[in-house]
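Page 42, continued from yesterday. The earlier attempt failed because a stray header line got pasted into the input along with the sequence. Redoing it now with the clean sequence only.
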Amino acid sequence: MSDHGTLSGMRRLLAADFARILHQTTGGKPTARLRRLMHLLLPAMQVAILHRTAHLLHGRGWRRSAALVADLSLRLTGASLHPGSRVGPGLFVPHPARVAFCATAGADLTLLPGTLVGPRDWVLPDQPFPADGPDLGDGAIVGAHAAIQGSVAIGAGATVGIAVCSLRDVPAGTVTMIAQRQVRGPRRPQGTIHGR
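This time it went through. Structure tokens are written below.
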């Protein structure tokens, strides 16, 4: 059985999540023990704890209990992760407000605020995990207010930029962005002479 299906595996995943959160928030600098423990209270860690718990319950067939834990996560942190979502170690959701996730992902996933990642037709937490959810590779980053919908593959190390809606596969290591709109100043009437 993989790390996702056992209690000891869940502990290993949470340890990896905690290490990632600690590294991201401290820049890898050594910190005092008490300060390290305070990181357990961060919303990012709460999302990880609640999702790992819900996923374990969901995998054991306790869908209603898993849905209750997922609902608790939504109420406490603002993040809604489907209990069937399989996420590798190193989950990082720094600002979980309005994050909705129903997909599979590899290690070191980053979800920024307002992201929507899931199938075309959304499913409730107590429903079975859909077959047409997105698949995100290791090190994927989903930017703020971005959306990934349908059975698309986001490659390892790829970044879906701010406010991008991705309905197609994104190759590994690439960055998708919205084209910058040009902002021009007011037009000057023709025939005017500058400097007079």
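Notes: The chain has a mean pLDDT of 89.
Reminder to self: strip header lines before submitting.
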